[in-house]
């Protein structure tokens, strides 16, 4: 009998398919794990931007998570858009009560969409900072999100990114992948900080408008790869898993870089090619 590794996404929905739950499930499939999902929010959005957003009832969000944990042995849980403080608190309540059932937790502190639209209310930020960050095995903020979590201005270079990644670890995160996509330059650098150590993950910056959902995709890839590789709460999310997940995102960005899915492809931001990884895992 074969049992695939199971990864749960708790996040919002993107009807255009490039971000949120839809991107997470595609990524899970591409990387060879079984995906489950609990919807925490609904959006009206496409590659051009977010038109509206609504939270799901907090009790209903919690009930979805309980239903998955009651039935499925989850190896990793990815947290994405949690809408507001009530939803974020409900998720924190379940995870605190059932921490062993969640496996590894990857927290993507989704606050702002690629289009610049806000996806998290101000009162929810404190819940993420004080209750969810300490529960997570790795937190994956981009430059603006790291600044919000620390109550600082956004950084402008790699040295600042290193400092903020280490500051988030000092503030209670087990590990941090601080993403440098908002910085400039031919090279793109992310910082993985864990304990007293850090690693710089660099690669060429891909010239493309198609970056919708990259944060969702990377965090779900980390959860999937860590689960498939056998990372546990005892080991934490190992650097090798982060590197493999990051490589998957780079290949997805490159493969989808010339896509013109939208009716107006020269506006907005198209998605990446989530299924680029299927051949590598024998699917």
TrEMBL record:
Reaction catalysed by this enzyme: 4-amino-5-hydroxymethyl-2-methylpyrimidine + ATP = 4-amino-2-methyl-5-(phosphooxymethyl)pyrimidine + ADP + H(+); 4-amino-2-methyl-5-(phosphooxymethyl)pyrimidine + ATP = 4-amino-2-methyl-5-(diphosphooxymethyl)pyrimidine + ADP
A single GO molecular function term of this UniProt record: hydroxymethylpyrimidine kinase activity
Entry keywords, A to Z: ATP-binding, Kinase, Nucleotide-binding, Thiamine biosynthesis, Transferase
GO cellular component terms attached to this protein's record: cytosol
CDD domains xrefs: HMPP_kinase
InterPro entries (alphabetical): HMP/HMP-P_kinase_dom, PM/HMP-P_kinase-1, Ribokinase-like
Pathway: Cofactor biosynthesis; thiamine diphosphate biosynthesis; 4-amino-2-methyl-5-diphosphomethylpyrimidine from 5-amino-1-(5-phospho-D-ribosyl)imidazole: step 3/3
Top-rank lineage group of the source organism: Bacteria
Coiled-coil zones: none
GO annotation, biological process: thiamine biosynthetic process; thiamine diphosphate biosynthetic process
Pfam family membership, one: Phos_pyr_kin
Function summary: Catalyzes the phosphorylation of hydroxymethylpyrimidine phosphate (HMP-P) to HMP-PP, and of HMP to HMP-P.
Name of the protein in its database record: Bifunctional hydroxymethylpyrimidine kinase/phosphomethylpyrimidine kinase
Phylogenetic lineage: Bacteria, Bacillati, Actinomycetota, Actinomycetes, Propionibacteriales
